[in-house]
Structure formats: C-alpha cells, structure tokens
Write a structure and sequence with these properties.
- The structure is a single chain.
- The chain folds into two domains: 1-112 and 308-371, 3-Layer(aba) Sandwich (Rossmann fold), CATH 3.40.50; 125-306, RecF/RecN/SMC, N-terminal domain (Glutathione S-transferase Yfyf (Class Pi), Chain A, domain 2, Up-down Bundle).
- It contains nine helices and 15 strands.
- The protein has helices spanning 36-48, 128-142, 144-167, 174-213, 236-257, 278-281, 284-306, 323-333, 352-355; strands spanning 2-11, 14-20, 25-29, 67-76, 79-88, 91-96, 99-100, 113-116, 220-225, 268-273, 276-277, 311-315, 339-343, 358-363, 366-369.
- A hairpin with a 2-residue loop joins strand 5 and strand 6 (91-96).
- It is globular.
- It starts with a strand and ends with a strand.
C-alpha cells in the first residue's frame, strides 16, 4: 500500500498543490512553520477523516476560505483507490472512488496510516485520554464496527451527563436515566470487549519488538485498566452485567457530581517493563522504547489484519530518538513500508534509507521535489 499522489486545496497554508510521491521513503525538509507537518497531517486526515492535531475541522481550512480539500490516489494490491475529504462550514464529506460515503465508519480503514510524532513519546507518561485516543484511532482503522459502537457510546454518554446535571436539581426523571444507562451499557460492553482484544493482539507484537530494541534485557507487558470490575475472559453479557452493577453502585454519586463515573471514557492502559510500572518508575529511555515498540507493533498488527503494510508518517520524531533507536526504526521499515519523514535538517541522521530517499523542500506553503 502506498500513496501515489496528494492534492491539496485551501488546506492550512497550502493554496493549490499537487505532489507525487516515491513508494519507498519520502524525506520532507524545511524550516519550522513552513508547512512540513501540514503535509503529514493531510495524509493522516485523508486516511482517518480527522486530524491528529486538532478536534476542530475548521482549523484545517486556509484562512478566509470557504472550504478545504484533500484528495489522494492510493495503490493497493486490490487496485487503485481515490480518496477525498472536503471540509466546509456545512460539515465534512468523504468519498471513495468519487462515491460519497454516508458514514465515516464506511470510509475509515480503506487507507491505513501510522503516525509517529514527538507527542507520541508522551503516550506512556501522558494522560489516560492520550492512551484512550491512541487505541480508539487504531482499532477504528481495522474494525469499522468498533467506530459504530464508540460513536453510539459517545452520543449516549453526552445525553446521560446532561441528564445527570438536571437530576441534581430535580430527581423526577430517574426513569429516563435508567433508559440511557441501558443504551450506554450495550455500546460500552462492545467497546470494552474490542479494546481487550486489540491490546491482546498488540501485546503479541510489542513484546518481541521491545525485547529486540532493549537487546534482550526487557519484557514489556500491556494491560487494559478498566474503570469497573471486568476481565478479558468475560463475554459481552458478563461485561454488561458488571457495568450495570457498577452504575448502580455510583448512581447517587453521579447525580451529585453531574457526570458518568464509570465506562470506557474512564479507562486506561498500563505498561510494565520487567514487572515494574514504566509510567511511574521507568526511565525516559524505557518510556521512549515502549512508545516506539507500540508504534512498530501497530504497523505489524495492521499488516496481519489487512494483508498490507500501512503508510508510516514520522513527523520530526527522529531528532527525538537516540542513534540506536533511530537505526532500529529505520532498519525495520527499510524496503517494505512507504515512509514519510519530516525534519529541519538531516545532520545527525546517518542512514542508507535516508540517503536513498526522494527529497522534497517545503518553504512558505510550497513543496518541491529536489531529489
């Protein structure tokens, strides 16, 4: 799988731009604030229909323009695929081979990407929200049904929280709370079950990758940390029963606080290295190795699921890794994964993969191939 061509219209600081890419490694050079990351973001949005940097779609549209557009042509084993994302004040439209997709869950997954940026190094030591977003985005690429259940969950959660705030003043609508709780539990059980399954599969790849990077000295274990009493062995019915029990136990507290206190939106992911919590006790090196292992495991997991390697986006991350981790990353991708690398300078990055890369220069919202 590789993206052959990218076209941008009124996207961030790009007016009208068309770029053809090499199917191996593409090195994007330029000073800061010139538009390198905007190219990476555009490829990510083309795949995921949302940005990794902002939750506001209007931020993606060029200043004083009515719409922004990203189009791309992707080559897969099954053939050529055209994708399009159009963003305007009226909302967002996505198209596959010129056919508009009514649901995002029918669009996401047609084109797979893995993004690795400096902020991803905070995946281990950052907030639980960062880790939840990571697993939500990655499961969504390989399991559209997950996005369906997650969408329902978030919608009902919002309604339930609104009702809880009202119940603190007037408890006459408690019957409606029971209705929303039942709807929430059904969606939540599906989300939790699929998160357990995803992390179990990711573990099988990440453990070996981390072992190799640490030169055989460290064993990485991933652990899903739910906000209620549930385990990966449980089926959907058991998970639902435990959720109902948990909600019943915190009902009065939820009404007092005006918010839902258990569920997937409160869950987390934990990491241990040689039995120790790497989030609390791990060195910066161990935390970075864990983050790198997760990203490389993600690549292998997607490949095992869809039969093709995803596209890898390395946004200014090589400078954040030491020489050994840089080399491990670049050796892993060499020759098998279309990769995009942004950097302000290639100084300090000495690797044959980058020597052979197609090179582009970005300056003030214009990108040109120089090699």
């Amino acid at each position: 799988m590789h993206i052959k061509e990218l076209q941008l219209a009124n996207y961030r600081n790009y007016g009208q731009t068309s770029i053809k890419f090499d199917n191996k490694v593409n090195l994007i050079l330029g000073e800061n604030a010139q538009g390198k990351t905007n190219v990476m973001e555009a490829i990510y949005v083309l795949a995921m229909a949302k940005s990794h940097r902002t939750s506001r779609d209007k931020d993606l549209i060029s200043w004083d323009r009515e719409y922004g557009k990203i189009e791309g042509r992707v080559e897969k084993r099954s053939g050529s695929l055209s994708l399009s994302v159009i963003i305007s004040s009226k909302g967002k439209k996505v198209k596959l081979n010129a056919l508009e997709q009514r649901k995002l869950s029918e669009y996401i997954g047609a084109f797979n990407v893995v993004m690795f940026a400096p902020e991803d190094l905070n995946l281990v030591k950052g907030s639980p929200q960062v880790r939840r977003r990571f697993i939500d985005m990655e499961i969504g690429q390989i399991n559209p049904v997950y996005l369906y259940h997650l969408g329902i969950y978030n919608k009902v959660l919002k309604q339930r929280n609104h009702l809880l705030k009202d119940l603190y003043k007037n408890r006459q609508n408690e019957a409606m709370l029971d209705v929303l709780t039942t709807q929430l539990v059904t969606a939540a059980a599906n989300v939790v079950k699929r998160r357990f399954e995803f992390l179990q599969r990711l573990q099988s790849w990440a453990e070996q990758i981390h072992f190799d990077i640490s030169r055989g000295k460290e064993k990485l274990i991933l652990q899903y940390k739910p906000s209620f009493n549930v385990s990966e062995e449980m089926d959907l019915t058991n998970i639902e029963e435990e959720l109902f029990t948990a909600f019943e136990g915190v009902k009065d507290k939820e009404i007092r606080r005006g918010t839902s206190l258990v569920g997937p939106h409160r869950d987390d992911v934990g990491f241990t290295v040689n039995g120790k919590d790497v989030q609390t006790f791990g060195s910066q090196g161990q935390q970075r190795t864990t983050a790198l292992s997760l990203k490389l495991a993600e690549i292998e997991l997607i490949h095992s699921k869809v039969g093709e390697y995803p596209i890898l986006l390395l946004d200014d991350v090589l400078s954040e890794l030491d020489d050994y981790r840089q080399s491990h990353l670049l050796n892993t991708i060499q020759g098998k994964i279309q990769t995009f690398v942004t950097t302000t300078s290639v100084d300090g990055i000495d690797h044959e993969t980058l020597d052979q890369a197609a090179t582009y220069l970005v300056k003030q919202g214009e990108i040109n191939k120089v090699k």
